[in-house]
Amino acid sequence: MRLPWIAKTLTTVAVLCGVSGTLLAQSMQLAATPPMGWNSWNHFACKVSDAVVRAAADAIASNGMKQAGYIYVNIDDCWQGKRNEKGIIQPNERFPDMKALADYVHSKGLKLGIYSSPGPLTCAKYEGSYGHEEQDAQTYAGWGMDYLKYDWCSAAKVYKPSEMPAVYKKMYDALKRAGHPIVYSLCQYGMEQVWEWGASVGGNLWRTTDDISDNYESMCFIGFGQNGLQKFAGPGHWNDPDMLEVGNGKMTKDEYLTHMSLWCILAAPLLAGNDLSKMTQATLGILTNPEVVAVDQDPKGVEGHRISQVGPLEVWAKPLADGSQVVGLFNRGESMNPVSLDFRDIGVSGSATIRDLWGRKDLGSFQDHFTASVPKHGVVMIKVK
Ligand code: GLA
């Protein structure tokens, strides 16, 4: 219900700033809240195939993820074969029929995503889109692709960093001409302050950092490093601290809870990066907790930020559309620690009611502050009203 108003405001702001208002209004419709889905890279890397993608779609459609909002099934690097005599890109032998795969994914009520690079080669040294942007955009539209991740990689060999916005805009224009609505994901690891221009070249999301790995240090370095970028995100255009590692096995349950909580407070795109066909109930529970996912998908579309830090104890907050705030009490220390929220830090004076979002229970009313015992590398995520 709030969206038309937000779209109108965004358009006005964009026109005043000299950015195409239509462009932002269109982006807004495609990614009014951060995109959710799955991506093949973190778990399968170059072992991705038609069968792997179908299995992911089957899992999402049947295990509750679709109902939770996970819609995009995204093929990352390594799907490409060679170009034919007309220059049209062909998938490799692991993808016998891309159109049929898209039809299959669409038949489940899901959307399919693809990956390329503006350079001659992708990061895994497969064929990139350099010199074939228009053709590739047409091919993706013909297959029915709904999402493109466009990864800088070898573009560094053919373009100067200052050309980046124009290079990304070129593909955006080609995608628009191709005519199939497509979420546009910029991936250039946060170079050239992409958050300042990503939306103006049609990006719905842009990576802010280098690649995540499935370990606590990498996840923390990226996630807790996002503070300050919140002013660049909003409906239609999001900071992307990279895909989820939840369920890939190298972090503890508390560390994955920290990962998911932080990404939701950051209004980050939620792209599961694990093998959905072999996931534990615990992993599924982390990915689909409705109250936590709702924080990420809140229609106000505000990215949260750090409100206090005492050594390894960090408190982050995100305002929601209903006037409440979600607060993450994070313990990056090596033992159990009490972590406190001072209500004044989120502009609340006096008393407030608190709900524990992972525990899914009301904790009651508190005066001036709230303190929780938080396990090592863990989090307590609360909603404060
Ligand atoms: C880069 C990207 C990753 C992934 C790989 C694929 O490293 O940042 O997310 O797409 O390329 O080669």
Strand and helix layout:
Elements: H1 3-16, H2 21-30, E1 36-39, H3 41-44, H4 50-62, H5 65-68, E2 72-74, E3 80-83, E4 89-91, H6 98-107, E5 111-116, H7 133-143, E6 147-151, H8 155-158, H9 164-178, E7 183-187, E8 205-207, H10 216-223, E9 238-240, H11 253-265, E10 270-272, H12 281-288, H13 290-296, E11 305-310, E12 313-319, E13 325-331, E14 337-342, E15 351-356, E16 361-367, E17 369-374, E18 379-384
Parallel strand pairs: 1-2, 1-10, 2-5, 5-6, 6-7, 7-8, 8-9
Antiparallel strand pairs: 3-4, 11-12, 12-13, 13-18, 14-17, 15-16, 15-18
Helix pairs in contact: 1-2, 4-6, 7-9, 10-11, 11-13
The structure holds alpha-D-galactopyranose.
Describe the structure using short key phrases.
TIM Barrel, single chain, disordered N terminus, alpha/beta, eight-stranded parallel beta sheet, 385 residues, binds alpha-D-galactopyranose, Immunoglobulin-like, globular, six-stranded antiparallel beta sheet
